[in-house]
Amino acid sequence: MTSPASPADLYCVMGNPVAHSRSPAIHARFAELTGEHVAYERRLVPMDGFAQGVRAFAAEGGRGCNVTVPFKTDAPGLATECSERVQLAGAANTLTFRADGSIYADNTDGLGLVADITHNAGVSLAGRDVLLVGAGGAAAGVLGPLLLAGARHITVANRTLAKAQMLVQSHSALAALQKAELSAQDPLALSADFDVIVNATASSLSGGGVPVPSSVLRRGALAYDMMYGPAAQGFLDWARQHGAVPRDGLGMLVEQAAEAFLLWRGVRPPSAQVLREMQQPTATA
Question: Would you say 13 and 44 are in contact if contact means Cβ atoms under 8 Å apart?
Answer without folding.
Answer: no
